[in-house]
Amino acid sequence: MDLAVLWFGIIAFFFIGYFVLDGFDFGVGMSLPFLGRDETDRRVLINTIGPVWDLNETWLIVGGAALFAAFPEWYATLFSGFYLALLLILIALILRGVSFEYRHQRPESQWKRWFDGMIVVGSAVPALLWGVAFANIVQGVALDHGHNYTGTLFDLLNGYALLGGLTTLLLFFTHGVVFVSLKAEGDIRVRARRLAVRSGILTIVVAAAFLTWTVIAHFSVALLVLAALAAVALIVSWILNLRGAEGWSFAFMAVTIALAVVSLFSALFPNVMPSVPHPENSLTIANASSTETTLTIMTWVAVIFLPLILAYQAFTYWVFRKRVSRSQIPAEPAEPADPEPVAA
């Protein structure tokens, strides 16, 4: 088997893992204004992902490192051409991570509101921009003969890309709300399930429009089948959530996201960065990959360590599998009172 093609599939696998796992993290973060009626609710929401959110983000780090090693030309073109968009994603992820760690360091409500706002923004911005970035990669961007991006940030904000961003935003939001219904107890669980029903309808409509546009623009039988399966999985997830089967609903949301990513990589193949309007400048699997020796070494490393990583991740989720309830949240220390005025 061609190792370059194999690593194209492995890169797709890493992004599937990242979007499925960090995707529901983004959704939980974005749900704070909708489900967090008080401080205890917000702490329940954050605690559903507290033990795993940083572990989920490692999929992005591993995927980026693998992309750099296996396809250095793709990595160089992507990170230079999409520099501003990726920088915004990085800043948003930093703000979100800092907020998780610092929001509980002081008892003042204003302090917590600031960090809660950064969690929402730090979740919504990557959820939107990842869709914009991948839609542009699939659609194709302006590259010169040296495979350098010649457009601007605003060229990336076209109709197809924005629809892709809205699709990932809604997919991750619904995915996260379903996760809350799976991990929380009591009233917040019921409200999360109801919110997932409402957001799921909008997600189905927007995702169907984006997948239809993608199939029409890059038609192949494989893409059509994958897009249809993703649509069916999304609808099944919505029905299961409506019936209160949170676990199965979450599983089918994960399948939906995985099939959507595979659909995009299928539409991309055999390119990794199509060039428009000059297809002769496109980056392909062949001309963007590393040497055979490098790919061989990487393959052996992946064979040894990838199963260990998957086993550790599965073990972590098993350890933290129990639901979170309001009764498990310890009382917050009272806010410090304003100092009494000193008599003259």
Provide a short characterization of the protein structure.
The chain has 344 residues and is mainly α. The chain has a single domain, classed as Formate dehydrogenase/DMSO reductase fold (Up-down Bundle). It is built from 13 helices and two strands, in the order αααααααααααββαα.
Please describe what this structure looks like.
There is one protein chain. The chain has a single domain, classed as Formate dehydrogenase/DMSO reductase fold (Up-down Bundle). It is built from 13 helices and two strands. The chain has helices spanning 3-30, 32-35, 39-49, 53-70, 72-81, 83-102, 109-139, 159-183, 187-217, 221-242, 246-268, 285-288, 292-319; strands at 271-273, 283-284. Helix 9 (187-217) runs antiparallel to helix 10 (221-242). The longest helix is centred in the middle third of the chain and has 31 residues, at 109-139. The mean pLDDT is 91.
Strands ordered across the widest β-sheet:
1-2
End-to-end distance: 87 Å
Main sheet: strands, sense, barrel: 2 strands, antiparallel
| Uncertain residue segments | none
CATH architecture: Up-down Bundle
